[in-house]
Design a protein that fits this description.
Blueprint (H helix, E strand, L loop, with lengths): L1 H9 L16 H9 L9 H11 L7 H32 L3 H29 L4 H28 L2
Protein name: DUF1311 domain-containing protein
InterPro entries: LprI-like_N
Length: 160
Amino acid sequence: MIAMVGFAMSYGVLPADAGDASGFDPATIDQCVASGEGDCTDAGMQACRDYASKKYTGDDPDFVEKNCLDAAHQAWEARLEETYQALIAQEGEAGDDSQEMLRKTEHAWIAFRDSLCDFAKASAQTRDISGEVAVLECQRDEAARHWTLLNARLVEETGE
């Protein structure tokens, strides 16, 4: 779904404020990054919360936050995957072992992220805070942080 939205947005098929059913608009991340505002991890979250709180009528007090964190995480993961694939392609052109090292680094990062987010969940639960919210926030934050690192490397190597 996110890939389709990203594809459609890149070709102007969807309006600028289009998002998914969650109310999260992935374009807010693009706009934040393009503006150079700095940390864009939370981009689009308040608009999503506002939208989702008007639509949700259930009794889960964490639904709105989980909904928006999950949608934001998916948007950051899509950006991360795109940047990672660009780096893989670039490293493949170098003709050395750097492509394989990048793959190993990514696998190690995924294990680190999973462990860190498991810790966030356990820590939240000991404080009677929703472990689900903690995991989703951790996943979103780590995807955004890792995208920032990979994107900086891509920009450094391509000069774009």
